[in-house]
Amino acid sequence: MRQGQLFTEEQRRTIARLLSTTELTTAEIAQRMQCSRSAVASINRHYQIRDYAGLRRVRQKIAV
What we know:
By secondary structure, this protein is mainly alpha-helical. The protein has one domain (about 10-60): Orthogonal Bundle (Arc Repressor Mutant, subunit A). The chain has helices at about 10-20, 25-35, 35-45, and strands at about 50, 60. A two-stranded antiparallel ribbon has the order 1-2. The chain starts with 8 loop residues before the first helix and ends with a strand. The model has no long low-confidence stretch (mean pLDDT about 85).
């Protein structure tokens, strides 16, 4: 995916699913989806899937 290119709804759902159902890091998800880590982090913040509590290596799943 090129910089500045918008995600399709399917791509956003795939990233959200990977965040919620796997232990992959944001970097691993970004590599798999061919996008930036910040794009994955943005989707995570939007859907509120993982809570890093200000720490990069410590995360908790947010109960929905």
